[in-house]
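Case study 2.
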Amino acid sequence: MGDGISMEQVNEERALMVQVKRRNSLKWKFMVYMPICMFVVLLGSGLIGMANNYLQDWYQMRYFGGYNAISMYYTDNGELYAEDQSDYFYPPQNMENAGYLLISSVQIVLVPLWAVTCILVAGILFYKREMEGSIHILIDSAKKIADNCLDFQLEAVKANELGMVCDAFEYMRRALYQTNQENFRIVDESRRLNAAFSHDMRTPITVLKGYSDLLEKYIPDGMISQQKLLEILDMMQGQILRLERYTQKMGSMQKLEDVVCCPHKVDWEEFMGNISGIANVLAKGLSIEWDDHVRLTQIWMDEEIALEVYENILSNAVRHAKSRIIVVTDMSGGNLQLTVEDDGAGFSKEALSKAMQPFYSEDKWENQSHFGLGLYISRVLCERCKGELRVENSDSGAKVTAVFGGAKGNCDV
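Prediction:
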């Protein structure tokens, strides 16, 4: 889920919150509910009063014995006179008077009870319509965030103050999600860096071990000349210095992509001697063919990175070669090309697309000493030097070409 947060989005959200506050504020909604509630209270109270008066009249007529007739008689002057007798009642008895008082007092109880009921109903409706949904969303979201479950989206139910709180929660969730993703990326990058460090340390150590075994085997019997001994010690010293520089560089960077390419003048003959010595140690029992097309005495390049890449692709070729490995060096358009080709089975269709991914290996069912990092590390290092790593199949087997950009010579032969 893409959760990128830009300042434009933040400003838009803040502007929306201001509009929400003006138009759909809870206090304004409350002021809408209350007049309606008061109107219903007054209307109900009036109806209760009218009903109570009607009941009182009925009770008077029913129990106080009023005449519902007109009496007609002649006066002394002989005139006919009519008199309405319906307003005359017999004196009420005690029980009948108590009933009348009860009916009269009901109104005193019903009106406050009706007012309280209306207020409660209005409050419940206000809560249900304006607050309940947002409150439930906030509670559920708080539980999810507390459980570090951030892969969800929080949407406000109502555009009011609680809706603004929901938006704030969503903003916080996205920020936490981004932070967690960045932390996961850093941890994963650190894991890959440690694996890469362990992987690249193996080759120089293997070279040193090979030279050590050679010296241990031939020195006691005096089968090695003084000059050859000095050459081997010089190469061992070079590997030790290279290990020191490599560990210092790896210790100073935060991730593999932080490697900085630092070109310097490199004697080409010396460089070829280094890669030849590495091949003699790593490719024991295999035939090595050299095809050098570089006609320069010095090359402007990062020798350490080039040797790292060469060792990785050579080690990969050694694991898959049957009997022969071809190493080709060339200069093209200011780029140094270092190609290692073996006579193995070549890359499978899947490997051609995934070989340069970290931790990929075709030998899935074998107990391996490598972790599928060699070509990945080589690709990253080549890219750091403005080059690329090409993986393909040749007529004889697998072919890997490392291209280092910006390489140039200062002295033509």
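The beta strands are 70-74, 80-84, 264-267, 287-292, 298-301, 324-332, 335-342, 388-393, 398-404, 408-409.
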